[in-house]
Design a protein that fits this description.
CATH architecture: Alpha-Beta Barrel
Bound molecules: flavin mononucleotide
Organism: Oryza brachyantha
InterPro entries: Aldolase_TIM, OxRdtase_FMN_N, Oye-like
Family: Belongs to the NADH:flavin oxidoreductase/NADH oxidase family.
Distance between the termini: 13 Å
Number of strands: 13
CATH topology: TIM Barrel
Radius of gyration: 19 Å
Shape: globular
Largest sheet: 9 strands, parallel
CATH class: Alpha Beta
Cofactor: FMN
Strand content: 5-15%
GO molecular function: FMN binding; oxidoreductase activity
CATH superfamily: Aldolase class I
Length: 371
């Protein structure tokens, strides 16, 4: 490998993540693409994911709904029906055929939804019944309006935990190597974690311990169902997307890291504090360092990484793996480009979420094979 003056660049060194032998540390971040018509994964996703597969590379699939109340965007995939599970199989097989390791990100949007996405037009469910300001655009995607959510009753929460458990089982049945619990970016789990949103007075609200209870019950259920060696979680304690911020994000991140250690999960995937707001980097005094040091499993960092600072994160031990979102979206051969210090394709925001099965999806160019 040519990068880094003769020896392999840190991002291109192998890493053993539990029982998975990764050949490099450049991870495909979960990327919602809104091309799963009617919440069913489509055959065009086979090519999309295969293009981004390397032998021994880790890919995290786009956020995938766990139930019929989990949706908040058009044409995002689900994994709660038999049809959806069957539809995932050829996509997972395609990744495995090229030697990739593929995790499914399991997701419930909570209040980042409106009743047109909900069964029988009901209100979206959440930790709270506080609605968001209509002007808020959820994570860069236009959502017409957010409906006022309905706060889950205490005794309804086990059934949502169970939906995560079943979705994890379904992911394994579809062939995925493991699941990533989506606990980030203002969605349902984050709506419990963050004190800007969570106004509950039961055992799921109030203290830090109580606010983390739902996330940890989900993690425990998923661990019990498929094994801790197949479970990761994504968290964004510092982010404020969809009006979900916390007054003490570092304490939140540390509490979760320590609690997750007890469950022995495979990895923790954290979004950088500099990505506090959508899309752009912000100056921040915060770092993931203390949380990384507290967590005992594999640590994946994400958010605004370049080739250079990804290499630095690995070489300094700040992260074991680095997940790339937009750069991997627009450069299907990103690890190869890093290997030879090749220029990168630019991403086009306009086509992130269009429903075209090719444009902005599988038509980003590769390097010529002889480069
Ligand atoms: C088009 C697009 C879709 C995304 N979808 C998801 C998603 O489904 N789940 C998730 O956790 N993050 C999602 N993100 C956030 C990315 O995983 C990543 O954290 C973010 O883009 C910052 O990393 P980057 O600077 O490498 O792009 C999405 C980002 C983009 C641009």
């Amino acid at each position: 490998m040519s990068s880094g003056g003769g020896s392999a660049a840190p991002l291109l060194t192998p890493y053993k993540m539990g029982r998975f032998d990764l050949s490099h540390r450049v991870v495909l971040a979960p990327l919602t693409r809104q091309r799963s018509y009617g919440n069913v994964p489509q055959p065009h996703a086979i090519l999309y994911y295969q293009q981004r597969t390397t032998k021994g590379g880790l890919l995290i699939a786009e956020a995938t709904g766990i139930s019929d109340t989990a949706q908040g965007y058009k044409d995002t995939p689900g994994i709660w029906t038999k049809e959806q599970v069957e539809a995932w199989k050829p996509i997972v097989d395609g990744v495995h055929a090229k030697g990739g390791i593929f995790f499914c990100q399991i997701w419930h949007v909570g209040r980042v939804s409106n009743n047109t996405f909900q069964p029988n037009g009901q209100a979206p469910i959440s930790s709270t019944n506080k609605s968001m300001k209509p002007a808020v655009r959820a994570n860069g995607i236009d959502v017409a309006t957010f409906s006022t959510p309905r706060q889950l009753e205490t005794d309804e929460i086990p059934s949502i935990v169970n939906d995560f458990r079943v979705a994890a089982r379904n992911a394994i049945d579809a062939g995925f190597d493991g699941v990533e619990i989506h606990g980030a970016h203002g969605y349902l789990i984050d709506q419990f974690l963050k004190d800007q949103v969570n106004d509950r007075i039961d055992k799921y609200g109030g203290s830090l311990e109580n606010r983390c209870r739902f996330a940890l019950e989900v993690a425990q259920a998923v661990v019990d169902e498929i094994g801790a060696d197949k479970v990761g979680i994504r968290l964004s304690p510092f982010a404020s997307y969809s009006e979900a911020s916390d007054s003490n994000p570092e304490a939140l991140g540390l509490y979760m890291a320590n609690a997750l250690n007890k469950l022995g999960i495979l990895y923790c995937h954290m979004v950088e504090p500099r990505m506090a707001k959508l899309g752009e980097k912000f100056e921040t005094p915060y770092s993931l360092g203390p949380i990384r040091n507290a967590f005992k499993g594999t640590f994946i960092a994400a958010g605004g990484y370049t080739q250079e600072d990804g290499n630095k994160a690995v070489s300094t031990g700040y992260a074991d793996l680095v997940a790339y979102g937009r750069l991997f979206l627009s450069n299907p051969d990103l690890p190869r480009r890093f290997e030879i210090d090749a220029p990168l394709n630019k991403y086009n925001r306009e086509t992130f979420y269009i429903s075209d099965p090719v444009i902005g999806y599988t038509d980003y160019p590769f390097l010529p094979s002889d480069v």
